[in-house]
Amino acid sequence: LVDDDRLVLTLLTTILTGNGIEVVGAVEDGDEVVAAVRAHRPDVVLMDLGMRRVGGVAATVAVRALTDPPAVCVLTSFDSQDDLLGALRAGATGFLTKDAEPEDIADGVRDVATGGAAFAPRVARLLADHVTADPHARDRAEAEAQLAALSGRELDVARAVAGGASNAEIARSIFVSEGTVKTLLNRALE
Hints:
The protein is α/β, with parallel strands linked by helices. It is built from 10 helices and 4 strands, in the order H-H-E-H-E-H-E-H-E-H-H-H-H-H.
């Protein structure tokens, strides 16, 4: 167990042992976990994310870099998409939240210990949202916002350039000089 709160460590030990899971060690910060893993050889490390010296993501990277590393299951009060993705990229195969039912925590540890994965329901939703999200949505929204700031003429010029028209072709199509097209294009680029 890795958590910076001694009360949480005591509670987790009680929950897990009460559900037939042997707790072989507990440490209070991420900088202590590698030594504890080497000393106790656990099947699973139940890891908090927010700790004082070394956070759970960095500690997970260190644990997973060991020869024959244990599985890592995150147990945290944080459940943002960034926290989830950081933990998964670091090598965690479970992500549970501290408001879970005690039996769900024990089941999650068992699932991770047997090669499975464990995710709190709202964390699974975050993961699904991430996987199904349009990867270009943010870029598209930014581009639309920039286009909305253009005047009508600037937008006409930008569209014509995007369509492959030359300055001379644009000038003829909107009845202005090439110099005006260049000015409109420069303002659009700004």
